[in-house]
Amino acid sequence: MKLLAPQPDRRWLAWWESKPANLALDVALVAGLAWFALTVHAGLTDRVIFFAALPTLLVRRRFPWLAILATPLLCFDPAAVLPVIVACYTAARQWGPRWRTLASFVLAAGSLTFAAWDPKPHDGILYQLLVPPAWLAAGMLVGLWMHQRRMLLDALQGRAAQAERNSALLADQAVSAERRRIAREMHDVVAHRVSTIALQAGALTMTASDEHTVETAEVIRSTSSLALAELREVLDVLRKDQPEPPETVHGVQADGSVYSDVAALVRDSAAAGGDIRLDAAPDLPEVPGSIRRAAYRVV
Question: Cα–Cα distances in Å, from 141 out to 74, 100, 102, 144, 158?
């Protein structure tokens, strides 16, 4: 028996999709932005505001709206474009094509454009109005693609699980059908043979002159009858309320008729010592296999 190693408890990583790599990436991102903010020239107030909003990027996977609401505060840093792009990417990846994603883009684009606004730009006003939203749109498109990719993978996994369940169900049905087929075969073969044994033992009981032989034959007859009853009780559990399949069973030929089936049964019983005769027209009509088997079993 192969023992499986216990899996580590990662419930505390639920905010990062239970992946340590995601936590490490977010910590590295926040640490890098913090180091960069300390190295560039900025006022004390701007740094305090930026550092107050920076932790929202650490929990952005669980609370993306926090990072979106903090985008105006993140814009107080000269390198604000990177954390704002990350916040927009996270919102698009988590929410997909919804109104919240569009509202996040409008808020982030307005905040970034306002923070980078220069009354006398060297590149023109149109450049200031188009370039920051274009950066954010690129990050948001990547987030939307990741969202659709995740939805597709979830759908494929669901289909694979459904296919596996259907396969297991079909296998169970095949096993049940095989068990029922075996039950039918055992009933048609074993029950007929045991009945023949009981019939021969009964005939021996009536004709034997030796008392010991009579007692032995009676034991054989009673035991055969009891075994036949128990066999039928067991097989009825497998055969109860099940439709007859098209397979052939013992004593019923695939291309035969009711007459040939019953005639063979009468010959076997007569050979066993029974006083049995068949009185039937040889040109009986052709009937489906299920009816032929029912007639065979009744006779």
Answer: 21, 14, 11, 5, 26
Q: Which tens digit of pLDDT belongs to each residue from 13-30?
A: 777 777 888 888 888 888
Q: Which residue has the tokens 């792009």?
A: 85
Q: What is the mean predicted confidence (pLDDT) over 244-269?
A: 65
Q: Which residue has the tokens 């021969």?
A: 200
* Percent above pLDDT 70 for the chain: 81
- Is residue 219 over pLDDT 90? no
Position of tokens 């926040």?
A: 30
Q: How far is CA 86 from CA 54, 60, 67, 73, 135, in A?
A: 12, 9, 9, 14, 11
Of 2-6, 75-79, 234-238, the poorest mean pLDDT is in 2-6
Per residue, the 3-state secondary structure of the chain, as one string, reads: CCCCCCCCCCHHHHHHCCCHHHHHHHHHHHHHHHHHHHHCCCCHHHHHHHHHHHHHHCCCCCCHHHHHHCHHHHCCCCCCHHHHHHHHHHHHHHHCCCHHHHHHHHHHHHHHHHHCCCCCCCCCHHHHHHHHHHHHHHHHHHHHHHHHHHHHHHHHHHHHHHHHHHHHHHHHHHHHHHHHHHHHHHHHHHHHHHHHHHHHHHHHHHHCCCHHHHHHHHHHHHHHHHHHHHHHHHHHHHHCCCCCCCCCCCCCCCCCCHHHHHHHHHHHHHHCCCCCCCCCCCCCCCCCHHHHHHHHHHC
Q: Helix 81-95 and helix 125-186: axis angle, to 10°?
A: 30
Domain boundaries, the chain: 11-117, 246-299
pTM: 0.52
